[in-house]
Every structure is written in structure tokens, then in C-alpha cells.
Design a protein that fits this description.
CATH architecture: 3-Layer(aba) Sandwich
Shape: elongated
Order of helices and strands: EHEEEHEHHEEH
Radius of gyration: 16 Å
Oligomer: single chain
Helix content: 25-40%
Largest sheet: 5 strands, parallel
Bound molecules: iron/sulfur cluster
Strand content: 15-25%
Length: 157
């Protein structure tokens, strides 16, 4: 690949622990990757700017509000590939814990849900948009993340 791979990192409803792993990987891989990738979006590392075209969007967390759905759709429209990172993005857990509440617990959670303007069920991102790949784990397996990033940089995926 003769130009930098444009990547974005986005967090939705979650503990943001997967992005901590990503930052640790970047610390290790900085000199190897610095001329090969351009980090366009990463709230923990740089000022947030409007979403524009990128090669790959990495998304962690589940979706719990309508504004998150709109943002996710915007990411999908601007990214050639979307990769779900972490179990929250892939299958909802543990961000979707309230989906299984019953009885009093459900009633209490419902009050908060309405107050916070959240949607009825917390959703994994692949229930909202098409994804191209995923990195499993809670938090993600860093070795798999490194492997996928290396393949993307080499233009093999
Ligand atoms: S998958 Fe686990 S570690 Fe990663 S953001 Fe979600 S809750 Fe945190």
C-alpha cells in the first residue's frame, strides 16, 4: 500500500476497555506503524472532528440511544470497512445487561432508561449496521488486533 491507511476508532456504550488495549498496542507498534497509518478519529488520543471518509472504522461498545444509531450509520457510510471490536460491539454483552432485567430491577432500570432517553433494548452494532469483521474478547485479544491491523496495512483484507 503506497499511502497511509486511514483509520478511525469509535466508542459507544461500554467501559472503553478495548480502546485501552488498542492504545497499549499503539505504544508498542508506534515506530513500525507511524508511516503506514493515519489515525483520523480517536477521542482518547486527539481532538474530535467531523466524520469523513476513512478506510477502516473500529467500533467498540453497544448502542443504547438514537443518536448513537445515527452516528453509527454515519460511520458506516464513510468507512470502507467497519470492524467491531470487543464483545459489546459484537453481541452486546456486557453493555446490554439491562435487557435481561425482570421485575423490580426492570422497573427501576426503566425509570433510568426513560430519563436518559435510551432506546428500549441495548443493541450490538451488527444489529444496526453491516460489519465486515470483528475482534473478539472483553477486552479484545491484542494479538488478534495486531494481526488484523497488519493485514489491513499490507492491503490483504
Ligand atoms: S467489550 Fe468489554 S472491555 Fe471492551 S469496551 Fe466492552 S465492556 Fe469494555
Amino acid at each position: 500500500m503506497d499511502r497511509k491507511l486511514k483509520v478511525g476508532f469509535f466508542s459507544f456504550t461500554c467501559c472503553e476497555g478495548c480502546m485501552i488495549n488498542v492504545i497499549e498496542v499503539f505504544n508498542e507498534k508506534f515506530f513500525e506503524w507511524k508511516d503506514k497509518i493515519s489515525i483520523e478519529y480517536f477521542r482518547a488520543l486527539k481532538k474530535v472532528k467531523p466524520i469523513r471518509k476513512m478506510d477502516v472504522a473500529f467500533v467498540e461498545g453497544a448502542v443504547s440511544t438514537k443518536s448513537e444509531i445515527r452516528k453509527l450509520e454515519k460511520i458506516r457510510a464513510n468507512a470502507t470497512k467497519v470492524i467491531a471490536i470487543g464483545s459489546g460491539a459484537i453481541n452486546g454483552w456486557p453493555s446490554d445487561l439491562r435487557n435481561s432485567f425482570k421485575g423490580v430491577q426492570k422497573k427501576e432500570a426503566e425509570i433510568l432508561r426513560q430519563r436518559l432517553g435510551q432506546i428500549e433494548k441495548v443493541l450490538p452494532i451488527k444489529k444496526v449496521i453491516k460489519i465486515d469483521d470483528e475482534v473478539a474478547g472483553c477486552p479484545i485479544n491484542s494479538d488478534i488486533f495486531v494481526l488484523k491491523m497488519s493485514e489491513l496495512i499490507e492491503g490483504r483484507r
